Amino acid sequence: MSTNVIDSLLIDVQRLQDAILNGLSEGVYFVDKNRRILFWNKAAEELTGYSATQVLGRSCADGILMHVDETGKCLCEDGCPLEGAMQDGLPCQAHVFLHHADGHRVPVHVRGSAIYDSQGEIVGSVEVFSDDSDRVGVMTRLKQLEQIALLDELTGLANRRYFNRAFAACLATFERDAMPFGLLMIDIDHFKKINDTYGHDIGDAILRLVAQTLAGNCRAYDTPVRWGGEEFAVLSENVDEDTLYSIAERARILIGQSSYALDGESLSVNVSIGASIARTDDNLEAIIKRADANLYSSKRNGRNQTTIDRTSQSCLNA
User: Fold this and answer.
1) What are the two backbone dihedrals, phi and then psi, of residue 189, each rounded to the nearest 5 degrees?
2) What would the mean pLDDT of 202-213 be, rounded to a whole number?
3) Does 231 participate in catalysis according to the annotation?
4) Which residue is catalytic, options 230, 237, 241, 249?
5) Residues 171, 300: one domain?
6) What is the mean pLDDT of the chain?
7) What CATH number is attached to the domain comprising 28?
8) Both 28 and 169 in a single domain?
9) Which helix (H) or strand (E) segment is 80 a member of?
10) What is the per-residue pLDDT across 14-23, written as a single tens digit (0 to 9) for each?
11) Model pLDDT for residues 141-185, shown as the tens digit of each residue
């Protein structure tokens, strides 16, 4: 067989492989031993917002995906699944949060495997990653909200009108079935400074960034809401105090790890959070009052923190 025919067959095989990889719904990319990106499929573009031309030839640790875990630890420096696979040859996986090109954090499930040459030497690694959020229920809910005008126009989150209905449903379930729920009140720290420095258009972009991070990282039992101004709320079902605090802290850390790119500058914000678990004698005004009081405590005590009332009587200990 001539060299030209062999080359042609190899090209056809390469095209077939690329077509298969680009047809996957999961993101796929390859790196060499120096973690330079050699391949980036279409799903990777869709999940991250970065095109192949933006990332090929760059190191995956070079400020692109910037994977972090739930505590905000940067895995590019310690704990990278690709690096781990190349070190010992064993497949590894993790639930992490990547940095989207638009600035918000996206939960993904990543799996890393080593790539070997014909001599059995490790020459790189491949990562396959998929959206880790519960999208089906969320998208169904959004469709319903769009039909009955219960969405906030700027951020796409549920609005106060929807919150009132959801709260009434949670309270009814709490009274009937002893299913506990809680409330987070979230306020962006120093938001006025963002508006005064960069203008209201950038302020709106920051609001959308926070909203996207909240929406992408809430549980299926959580309802994130645009409360008004720079304030958000999350109604969390089936929680105790420790779980509610963990949800709040995860949101706070991931929002702080998100950023908005502006003329080569990365704008990021922190949030203060007040949390409260529903009590047996609660109504809407009472739980909002407690969560708001805890929010103001977080502000007074230095901001960028969560305060929860540890003396509340949830149905778990009522």
Assistant:
1) -70, 135
2) 96
3) no
4) 230
5) yes
6) 86
7) 3.30.450.20
8) no
9) none
10) 676 777 888 8
11) 666 666 667 888 899 899 998 899 899 999 998 998 899 999 999
Q: Where are the beta strands (DSSP E) in the chain?
A: 27-32, 37-40, 92-99, 105-116, 122-131, 181-188, 222-228, 231-237, 260-262, 265-267, 271-277, 306-308
Q: Give the per-residue pLDDT at 232.
A: 98
Domain total of the chain: 2
Q: Are strands 306-308 and 271-277 parallel, antiparallel or unpaired?
A: parallel
Find, among 236, 234, 209, the residue nearest to 295 by Cα. 234
Tell me the DSSP string of 277-288: E--TT--HHHHH
Asked whether residue 68 falls in the same domain as residue 148, the answer is no
Same domain, 279 and 223: yes
Alpha carbon distances (Å) from 297 to 181, 185, 187, 251, 289: 21, 12, 12, 18, 12
Separation CA 171–CA 259 (nearest Å): 36
The answer to whether residues 184 and 248 touch, using CB atoms and an 8 Å cutoff, is yes
Summarize pLDDT for 237-266 with one digit per residue, the tens: 999 999 999 999 999 999 999 999 988 889
In a 10 Å sphere around its CB, with 0-12 CB exposed, 13-18 middle and 19+ buried, how is residue 192 labelled? exposed
User: What are 93's two structure tokens?
Assistant: 């996986």
Q: What is the pLDDT of residue 116?
A: 85
Do residue 176 and residue 101 come from a single domain?
A: no
Instruction: Please state the rounded mean pLDDT for residues 75-85.
Output: 82
Backbone angles phi, psi at 184, to 5 degrees: -110, 130
Q: 191-198 and 200-217 helices cross at what angle (nearest 10)?
A: 140
167 and 251 assigned to the same domain: yes
Cβ atoms within 10 Å of 67's Cβ, excluding its own: 25
* 177, 49: one domain: no
Q: Are 216 and 133 in contact (CB under 8 A)?
A: yes
Residue whose token pair is 């706070």: 252
Residues 212 and 66 both lie in one domain:
no
Alpha-carbon Rg for the chain, nearest whole angstrom, is 23
Structural domain span for residue 284: 135-308
Q: Which two tokens stand for residue 204?
A: 């709106």
